[in-house]
Amino acid sequence: MIRYLTARLAQQIDEELMSAAGAFSIDQLMELAGLACAQTLATAYRQDIYPRVLVCCGPGNQGGDGLVAARHLGMFGYQPTVYMPKPGNKDIYQRLKKQCENMEIPIIPPSEDIESLRRALHDSDVILDAIFGFSFKPPIRAPFDSVLPLLNQSRLPIVSVDIPSGWDVENGNELGVGLQPNVLISLTAPKEGVKDFIGRHFLGGRFVPEYLEKKFELHLPPYPGSDQIVELASDKTPTKY
Amino acid sequence: MIRYLTARLAQQIDEELMSAAGAFSIDQLMELAGLACAQTLATAYRQDIYPRVLVCCGPGNQGGDGLVAARHLGMFGYQPTVYMPKPGNKDIYQRLKKQCENMEIPIIPPSEDIESLRRALHDSDVILDAIFGFSFKPPIRAPFDSVLPLLNQSRLPIVSVDIPSGWDVENGNELGVGLQPNVLISLTAPKEGVKDFIGRHFLGGRFVPEYLEKKFELHLPPYPGSDQIVELASDKTPTKY
Predict the structure, then answer these.
(1) With an 8 Å Cβ cutoff, are B76 and A225 in contact?
(2) Which of the residues in chain A have pLDDT under 70?
(3) Which end of chain B has the least Cβ crowding within 10 Å, N or C?
(4) Closest chain A residue to the Cα of B91, Cα to Cα
């Protein structure tokens, strides 16, 4: 059985990958993670039927994954729009944002009020939720306390990255205020909080070397061929691994 | 018709991508380029029939693409070995090498003589040629003047990255001392020197924004779905685009 990670373990694996010993740069990992997110969305929601993707980005690293995914989705022929009400200020964030701007991907200015989100939702076919990642801790702070209900109310299909936004990383949607995604893409390994998730569940982050997989007893499933994602469960079957 | 690039143009596009305006880091571009190389090899040479890949890396950026490709090939289930007789000393090179070591990918020590290459070839099923890229200028210097003939003599199938090693970037294999690859993976756009290449020809580097594609009149073909590579020509048909 695949291992479901606590927030602390997820953090530890990330740190090891980017330590001097692991030798990965954040640019590399974010590029592969974001690509996996974009490919998951493309697998679940065809470009000809769901062309307009609202990519919702949080202020942390997961927002960076979202910006990378938005760029790749643009390359795949989708029409992404980035909603990033609280932009991160790390240098990498600025560069990833610039790369989106260079692709002429619309970015909703953070200063605008919640009406801009309402309008964007009206003009979207599917949502990519890259708001909160495994370092999220409740409570949900402004402006996201107003954002999450709007996303749920939109009735648009939602693809969540790693942990649906608003869910506790270990205890899931216990407070009932989190997003209700149709599709989930776990990165590196799934988190404890998504054990009971029902829907299509993918795994991405095909960069964990065997020594780390063994050290943390991850029991990752094999990825098919040269794909960057593997489907763990469809919406009709329980988790395969 | 797709544009075939001079060495100067290829250099210019690379610089624009990594300028403040282009905003890409070398880590990002190398990761996507190396992934495209690995996926090309995996498409042309199945892992169950050609498991042992000798990844030959030069001292420049293309050697870096090779190291990234070696890592991804390891992830895909291949058994890569890295041959890097003249390691680059940029920091990124060291990190990419460490990532390979972490995957327990054998790296032939650079100090060893040409016999180590002979042995490695004997134990390989296919070669990934990431020795010289678009900044190569003849003559071929030691140790590569001995390396290239050995690779050709091995009769192993060869997948070359961007420009087959030993070919002039603009004039091709005019001196007749270059590799004779079966498969070519051009990055960003093909180079003038490979216009007459016969074999399977792929394109990778799905990161060129439209404004650069237009500025340099690249006329890139569409990539299929969410793939990172597109086949330009099979070995039996002329270039499609």
Answers:
(1) yes
(2) 236-241
(3) N
(4) A23
